[in-house]
Amino acid sequence: MKRPLVFAGIAVAVLAGGLLAYLGVAGVAASLPDVSSLAHRAPRHTALMRLRAEQARARGRATAVDQRWVPYERISPVLRRAVLIAEDDAFFSHGGLDWDEMRESMRRNLEARSVVRGGSTITQQLAKNLYLGPERTVSRKLKEMLLARRLEQALSKRRIFELYLNLIEWGDGIYGIEAAAQRHFGVSAGALDPRTSALLAAVIINPRRYDPAHPDRRIERRARMILSRMRRRGFISEEQYLVATGVATGVATKVATGAAPGAAGGSTSVSPGWPFATGAVPGMAESSATAPAESLAGAAPIDTVPSPGR
After folding, report:
1. Among candidates 193, 166, 189, which has minimal Cα distance to 67?
2. Residue 133: how many CB atoms within 10 A of its CB?
3. pLDDT tens digits, residue range 219-265?
4. Among residues 80, 109, 193, 199, which is most buried (max CB within 10 A)?
5. Cβ atoms of residues 89 and 300 within 8 Å
6. Is residue 164 within 8 Å of residue 204, measured between CB atoms?
């Protein structure tokens, strides 16, 4: 008689725990903001912007926000693809949460006994920047995941990516790709080339620490990986890759005019390793010796949207 009672008690405990968890999640979800208005307008300030302003005031510093909205179609396609490769290769195929990436990140972090790899999608990053801030707590992560699902249900993929590119942090007081392109490289978001695009994508991991205009070895390695994947997937040509990595310094004019490298009227000069310290041989896939600890995601991105809707 005792065994059935034990099993019944366990079952009741499990059901009660599940009910409490459900009610807890439902309560958190009910407290989250409505995101539907983002389909037609962008917020003037985000939670991250407000946090940075508070931090600056606490240090007695003046605050300034440089954010310039630019429509999706006026953002360089090369930059869009570079960001997808660097941050969320599966963006156009998941529903806001990439469970495979989260499992891999958990495995890598457990092995390293520290946070060496994030598992947040572009949608999750947008949710965090818009509403939550960067603190690392279980409750914040739960809110981030719920908001990501809400964003995916309310907005098109194109709109989510447009908001992300226009609002994320790209330096101290710099938000969005137009301000980042102008401040770091003196060009518009639509004029970014493969090299500047890869560098801007590479620093998203910590934009206040790393400067895309003056990259250190870690950022150079990340940029090279991004460029290599864009070349292999056909997003940039071999000539563009050589120019972007600095291997061929005399190809730029020919790429811009459509002339073939080495054609009459000019020659291709080779400067191995500039401005990258790795000096990898063109055409060789990046090896584990040159890959950074936070390896980029591996699925091929699809930087297209089937229709103006979802």
Report:
1. 166
2. 15
3. 999 999 999 999 999 999 999 999 999 876 554 444 333 333 333 33
4. 199
5. yes
6. no
Q: Could you give the dihedral angle defined by the CA atoms of residues 75, 76, 82 and 83, in that order, rounded to the nearest 10 degrees?
A: 0
User: CA-to-CA distance for 308 and 310, rounded, in angstroms?
Assistant: 7
Q: Count other Cβ atoms within 10 Å, centred on residue 82.
A: 30
Query: 209-218: long-range contacts at Cβ-Cβ below 8 A with a sequence spacing of 24 or more?
Result: 211/171, 211/184, 212/170, 212/180, 212/184, 212/185, 213/184, 213/185, 215/275, 217/277, 218/292
81 backbone dihedrals φ, ψ, rounded to 5°: -70, -35
Question: For the chain, what's the residue count?
Answer: 310
What are the pLDDT digits (tens) for 175-212? 999 999 999 999 999 999 999 999 999 999 999 999 99
Q: SS3 of 262, please?
A: coil
CA distance 255 to 122: 32
Query: Is the link from the previous residue into 275 a cis peptide, with omega within 30 of 0?
Result: yes
- Return d(Cα 74, Cα 77) in angstroms, integer: 9
CA distance linking residue 74 with residue 232, whole number of Å? 25
Cβ contacts of 168 within 8 Å, gap of 6 or more: 125, 126, 129, 175, 176, 204, 207
